[in-house]
Design the sequence.
């Protein structure tokens, strides 16, 4: 199965989350898996792509609307994870909310 | 130095490039470095973030305008790299052009 999300025709929204981790797992891996599972059951969720190496992690989640992004931000379990992200897991991060206007796929 | 791009106040544009590699390097690493260097000298270039693991690579480049993205797409050396990407380096990829409307930074 491909790690590339197959999405509907634009427009749709992308939340680009780029992060640098603190040292050690401290429960991060388990929570990350739980959040992906929970996000995927939200209204308006379209897909997710994620990659991490020593320097940086990038997770892009795709959503049907700004309202669905706001609802996910406000989700109670997600709020708990966001707090632990700031207090334990992330050295720094950037979050960018964008509207995808065009896309293009290539498959060999 | 942080791998997170520090960018001007939105709006700006993000090109989200998610890719699955073929086996072996085949000159990819060298060309990727050259393209980052070349892109950084283009008018309208704002920054780049990149992460790759076994499953997926995600590179997000940030631009001041759609015109600057188009000019980079049409750059002659970049065109050569794009062709080699399809013929040699990528099993599959998705390219998404999006307009960043809001961003948020966290730093410990």
Sequence:
């Amino acid at each position: 199965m491909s790690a590339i999300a197959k999405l509907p025709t634009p427009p749709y929204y992308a939340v680009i989350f780029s992060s640098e981790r603190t040292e050690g797992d401290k429960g991060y891996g388990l929570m990350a898996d739980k959040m992906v599972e929970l996000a995927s059951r939200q209204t308006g969720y379209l897909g997710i792509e994620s990659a991490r190496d020593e320097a940086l992690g990038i997770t892009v989640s795709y959503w049907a609307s700004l309202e669905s992004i706001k609802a996910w931000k406000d989700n109670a379990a997600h709020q708990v994870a966001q707090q632990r992200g700031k207090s334990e897991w992330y050295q720094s991060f950037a979050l960018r909310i964008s509207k995808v206007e065009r896309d293009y796929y290539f498959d060999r």
Remarks:
- The radius of gyration of chain A is 14 Å.
- Residues 12-100 of chain A form a domain with the Alpha-Beta Plaits fold (CATH 3.30.70.100).
- Chain A has one domain: 12-100.
